[in-house]
Amino acid sequence: MFNNKDNTTNNISSSSSSKLDTLLGKKTSIKGDIGFSGVLVLDGTVDGSLVGSKNDDVLTINETGKVIGKIQVANIIVNGTVKGDIISSGKIEVASKAVIEGNVYYKNIEMETGSKINGQLIYQESDKPAKISNIEDKKAK
Tens digit of pLDDT for each residue in 17-31? Predict the structure, then answer.
């Protein structure tokens, strides 16, 4: 995503682009939850949760892509719109056109200039999975 001088970047966008498993096009609109494994590229709209099942899954939300619901995936590249929480156990790349309205639970995050996050950035330790319900319970007290 960013230009590194040593060219040894750990960039999920370049490593995943050749292994596309599923593409949801611009004119595709899905209402409901989606579970997937591998690489999913979203150009359309999903009104529901997106959940990756493996530790090397990659979700790419392009400029025209929109998700209204929770996302839980190992690695994610966002350049579109997300209205809901994002939980990542790997790496998050937030590109310049990204608009995220929700909390982002991350271990590793990169953000480009111009990207927008309206929510909390919450660091997750590597040995503890995110537990949204516990965090929400603490806020209520």
Answer: 457 889 999 999 999
Residue 96 sits in which domain range? 12-122
Q: Give the count of beta carbons closer than 10 Å to the beta carbon of residue 120.
A: 11
Query: How far, in whole angstroms, is CA 46 from its chain's centroid?
Result: 13
Determine, yes or no, domain membership for 138: no
Euclidean distance between CA atoms 104 and 84, whole angstroms:
9
Domain assignment present for 118: yes
pTM score: 0.78
Task: Tell me the C-alpha to C-alpha distance, in Å, between residue 44 and each of 30, 34, 99, 120.
Answer: 8, 13, 15, 26
Identify residue 99 by its one-letter amino acid code.
V
Here the tokens at position 101 are 């309205």
- Percentage of residues in the chain with pLDDT exceeding 90? 73
**Rounded distance, CA 49 to CA 66, Å?**
12
Q: What is the DSSP annotation of 68-82?
A: ES-EEESEEEESSEE
